[in-house]
Amino acid sequence: MTPPGADDALLLAPLAEVAERLRTRRLSPVELTAAVLARIERLDPALRAFVTVTPERALAAAREAESAIASGRWRGPLHGVPVSLKDLFDVRGVRTSAGSRFLAEHVAQDDSAVAARLEAAGAVLVGKANLHEFAYGTTCDSTIAGAIRNPWKRDAIPGGSSGGSGAAVAAGLGFASIGTDTGGSVRIPAACCGVVGLKPTFGRISRHGLVPLAPSLDHVGPLTRTVHDAALVFAALAGHDPRDPDSLAAPVPDLAQAAGRGVRGLRLGILDTTLESASSEVAAAVGVAAERLRGAGAELRRVSLATLESVRHAAFVMLFAESLATHRARFESEPERFFPDVRARFERALPLSAVDYVAALEARRAGAAEALRALAEVDALVTPTLPTGAAPCGATQVAVDERAVDVAVANTLYTREWNVLGFPALSVPCGFTGDGLPIGMQLVARPCDEATLVRAGAEYQRLTDWHARAPAL
Predict the structure, then answer these.
(1) Using alpha carbons only, how large is the chain's radius of gyration in Å?
(2) Is the same domain home to 196 and 290?
(3) Which domain, by its residues, includes 388?
(4) 473 domain residue, yes or no
(5) Which pLDDT band holds residue 398 (cuts at 50, 70, 90)?
(6) 116-165: per-residue pLDDT in tens?
(7) CA 311, 312, 313 angle in degrees (round to 5)?
(8) Which of 131-140, 188-197, 265-274 has the lowest mean pLDDT?
(9) Could you give the CA distance from residue 17 to residue 22 in angstroms, rounded to a whole number?
C-alpha cells in the first residue's frame, strides 16, 4: 500500500483516479480516509465547510471497505472513497441540523435514501457539509456553524446553499459531496468554488429523508472535481424510489460511458440574453469555452427563449409560497429563531395569493413548452452559471460591470428557471476573473438527457485544465 500522508496531489485528484487505486489495492481506504480527516482538521476551522465531522464512523467504514476490497468484494467506484453530505440529508445516528437553530440538536433515526445508497456503494462518509439555513440562501452567511468561506478567496462567498459542499470539494476535503438545488444551490457553489455541479432532471435522485424547502423545486445532485466523477456519483444515487412521490421510474443512463463520446455532431444553443446580462469577463470566458467545443466538432447556434423572464418570476413565487408552506409552523410560532435574511424571505411570501401561484404554474407550463421546442433544434443550451465571480462576503449587491445587482437575484439569474422546469443542468469551471475567482459555464439539456450534458462537459474538461487547478491553501 502507498500511504497518502498529506499529499495534496492525491487529495485533490479526481475521484475516478483514486477509485482505481483503491480497486487495485495500490491505496488503502483507511490511510486515505485518515489523510482526508487530517486535512479537514487542519483547514476547516478557516473554511467552515462542515457542520459535523464523523471520524469514528468514517474510519470504521474505511476498515470495512479495505477488508472487502482485499477479499475481492469491490462494490464499484465509490467503494472506500471519502465523501460528504449536505446537512439536509438524514444519516442514522448523526445530527441533521439543516444549518438552523431549530434542528441544532436533532439526531436522525433513519437513513435518507441518498445516505443509504452511498453506504450501499461503499462510500466513506467523513461528515455533514455546512449550508445556508434550511437551504434558503445563496451566500452561506446564515448558518449555525458559521459563515462558510471560499477556498479561493477568504473574503468571498462559496455560493449557496450547498456552499459547504462546494468548499469541501474545492479544498480537497473529500472527493465528492452531495448537495441540493432548489434555485441553483448545487450549480452556484460549483461555479463560485471552481468545481463541477450536476443538477439532474427533477425526480432522478430520491429526496426521501431530506429536509425539504420547496418540494416542486428541490433537486439532489453531486459536486465533484470532474464531470466524469459526477457521472460516477450519479450512477450510485439515481433510480426510482417509491418513498419519494416525485421519483422517476425512467431508466438510468450510463453517464460514465457518455463521458467518453466527445461532442462531434452535438448542436449547442447559445442563449444570447444570458451573455448580454453577464459581466464582460464572464461573457468572454463562456464564449471562448463554447468556441472550444465548436473546435472539437460541436455546432453552435444562437437561441432565444421569450418566456425566460416570466419563468424566472414564477421561480420566486413558487419558492416563496412553497417554502413558507413547508416551514409555516416554525415561522408562526418562533419567527425570531430564523436568521434575519431567511425570515425576510418568509415574510415576502405572506402577500402571495392562490392566484399568484396558479399564474406561476401557467408560466411554468408555457416555459417548458418553449424550452422543449428549442431543445428539439439543439441538443443543449449554453449559458454562464453566474453573471460574475463569487460575491464578497456580507455584500447585498454585486457589481456586474457598471450595474449593481442584488446578490440573490444575480446568483440565481441563470439557474432558477431550470428548477421550475425540472430540466437537467451542469456547471463546469471555464476560467477565472481578474480577481482570481472561478467562472462557471452552465449546460442545460432536455429532461432525462443528462448524458448530453456529460458528453459536452467531459469533452470540455479534456480540452482544458481549469478543473485541475486548486486554491492555494
Answers:
(1) 20
(2) no
(3) 267-468
(4) no
(5) very high
(6) 999 999 999 999 999 999 999 999 999 999 999 999 999 999 999 999 99
(7) 90
(8) 265-274
(9) 9
Q: What is the pLDDT of residue 1?
A: 32
Q: Rounded distance, CA 63 to CA 100, Å?
A: 33
Which one is catalytic: 97, 185, 279, 323?
Answer: 185
Contact between residue 289 and residue 399 where contact means Cβ atoms under 8 Å apart = no
Helix (H) or strand (E) holding 217: none
Catalytic residue among 28, 84, 100, 161: 161
Helix (H) or strand (E) holding 91: none
Question: Does the CA dihedral 96-100-105-106 come out positive or negative?
Answer: negative
**Residue 2 in domain:** no
The answer to whether residue 128 is catalytic is: no
Instruction: Work out the average pLDDT over 258-279.
Output: 94
The C-alpha atoms of residue 222 and residue 468 are separated, in whole angstroms, by 18
Tell me whether residue 247 is one of the annotated catalytic residues: no
Mean pLDDT across 51-76: 98
Rounded to an integer, what distance in angstroms lies between the CA atom of residue 344 and that of residue 334? 14
For 110, what's the count of Cα atoms within 13 Å in the CB-facing half-sphere?
6
In whole angstroms, how far apart are CA 70 and each of 36, 60, 74?
21, 16, 8
Within this chain, do residues 298 and 233 fall inside the same structural domain, yes or no?
A: no
Q: Which of 54, 211, 36, 45 is nearest to 128 (CA)?
A: 54
Q: Indicate whether 4 pLDDT > 60.
A: no
How many Cβ atoms sit within 10 Å of the Cβ of residue 291? 12
In a domain, 1, yes or no: no
Catalytic pick among 84, 86, 206, 323 = 86
One domain for residues 211 and 343: no
Tell me, yes or no, whether 203 and 278 share the same domain.
Answer: no
Same domain assignment for residues 32 and 153: yes
Q: Is 185 a catalytic residue?
A: yes
Same domain, 245 and 322: no
Single out the residue of 299, 350, 300, 298 nearest to residue 324, CA to CA: 350
> What's the Cα-to-Cα distance from 185 to each of 44, 62, 86, 165, 413, rounded to whole Å?
21, 29, 11, 10, 12
Beta 380-384 vs 397-400: how paired, if at all?
unpaired
Closest CA to 165 of 204, 111, 126: 126
pLDDT for 334 beyond 50: yes
Record the cell numbers describing residue 368, joined without a space.
417548458
pLDDT digits (tens, 9 = 90+) for 429-451: 999 999 999 999 999 999 999 99
Cell triple for residue 63? 476498515
Q: Are residues 342 and 233 in the same domain?
A: no
Q: What is the CATH number of the domain that holds 200?
A: 3.90.1300.10
